[in-house]
Amino acid sequence: MSASPHRRSPSRRRLAVLGAALLTAVGLGSVPLVVSAQAAAADLGHAVLPAADGWAASGSGTTGGKAADAAHVFTVSTRAELARALKAGPADAPRIIQVRGVVDANTDDAGKALTCADYASGTGYSLTAYLKAYDPASWGRSKLPSGSQESARAAAQARQAARVVLSVPSRTTIVGVPGTGATITGGSLQVKGADNVVIRNLTFGDTRDCFPQWDPIDGSSGNWNSAYDAVTLRGSTHVWADHNTFGDGPHYDRSNPSYFGREYQVHDGALDITNASDLVTVEYNRFTNHDKTMLIGSSDSDHGLRVTLHHNVFQGVVQRAPLARVGRIHLYDNYYETAELNGYAHSYSINSRAGAQVVAQNNYWALSSDRKASQLLSGDGTGAVAGGGNLVNGQPTDLVAAYNAVNSKKIRTTVDWTPTLTAGLQPAAGLPAALARTAGAGVLTASGTFAR
Ligand code: CA
Ligand code: CA
């Protein structure tokens, strides 16, 4: 297997022309252009999505902050530095943000750790009072919480959000510096209404909401819902997520308490792609120790949602790998393990619903003895899953036939499109060994080749 290639190494002259055009476009044409000395090197920060590498390669492709001038190449190692780099003007300047070591999002501007109690302080919120106010025995199950404790909860949540939600503007590359254990802990990178964003070589951990909201009418028994995905794409286009690792550690769901008979869920998605996001490539990531892993489409009326997932590892995830609605979604060369890990027990892998047009091709499942091939898919009877070449424990397996044999809401087998952006497509047999070496954060060297 080859490394994620970096085929484009444009000359300085071409970069300068590009940069000048961008400066002209933002009305700064007279400012002298300084091209970073790193621009010509094939380092991780300047690398762009290769041609034909999934939906994000469509049209203008995905280059992130490649055209950044020297003033917009940042190295950050704290939440305050990361927030400053994301906001440094002008807003539409291409930028490269290199993360060195661990950035803890739950910290103040001086770097002091912030606790849930710090966020709640002064709002009047207390979990004890909240549980008393909205106990179904007195509040009932027919209406959402409202009143002083719900207002206090929302105020406390807003205070945490102001620290942990980090908005990523257009033309940005965020990349972990190899060899530094680059990590964003407790944070939620929010790519909202943005175009052309690259997120590479980062570990995301412990993204957790201090203030879950009780929703008595979510599902048949109510649910505790949390606000933050480690990475969330909303209304964004041309996004490349590559060689990252996502997980809940060190706060696994098994330590969540239960209130009103439901798990007090402090986590939401790992990487959610919603609200008409489109043209997204997710490759060589590692998803572990998580429940609601990847939502594609937030409702049945969402749109866009053309997403490619390839060469990702799903290990110890409960569900949504992904949950796909509406879009044209290509899943190839992904590797799934269904064995329970740290209390995360497999529910299903791929859910195709709301008319989703999924092509699942050359994926590999390591199926544990407690699970069946009929339990790898899920759906509502309107989604499709086409494609072949999938292996379960090395055996060619028709996933849809296995699912449909035991479910009444059948998954459809034909889709309205044919994937063409399929860089690196390979037979599934080699995936377990190859991806153990090549997926996730920390395996890339500074020049984009594999470290091990
Ligand atoms: Ca740090
Ligand atoms: Ca979410």
Helix-strand layout with pairing:
Blueprint: H1 12-25, E1 73-76, H2 79-87, E2 95-99, E3 102-104, H3 116-120, H4 127-133, H5 136-139, H6 148-164, E4 165-167, E5 172-176, E6 183-185, E7 188-192, E8 195-200, E9 203-205, E10 213-215, E11 223-225, E12 231-234, E13 237-242, E14 245-247, E15 258-259, E16 262-263, E17 271-274, E18 278-283, E19 286-292, E20 295-296, E21 307-310, E22 313-319, E23 323-325, E24 328-332, E25 335-337, E26 350-353, E27 357-361, E28 364-366, E29 377-379, E30 384-386, E31 391-392, E32 395-396, H7 399-404, H8 431-438
Parallel strand pairs: 1-2, 2-5, 3-6, 4-7, 5-8, 6-9, 7-12, 8-13, 9-14, 12-17, 13-18, 14-19, 18-21, 19-22, 20-23, 21-24, 22-25, 23-26, 24-27, 25-28, 26-29, 27-30, 28-31
Antiparallel strand pairs: 10-11, 15-16, 31-32
The chain binds calcium ion (2 copies).
One calcium ion binds next to strand 3.
Task: Briefly say what this structure is.
With 452 residues, the chain is α/β, with parallel strands linked by helices. It is built from eight helices and 32 strands.
Q: Name the quaternary structure.
A: single chain
β-strand percent reads 25-35%
Helix content percent band: 10-25%
Bound molecules: calcium ion
Q: Architecture in CATH?
A: 3 Solenoid
As for the number of domains, it is: 1
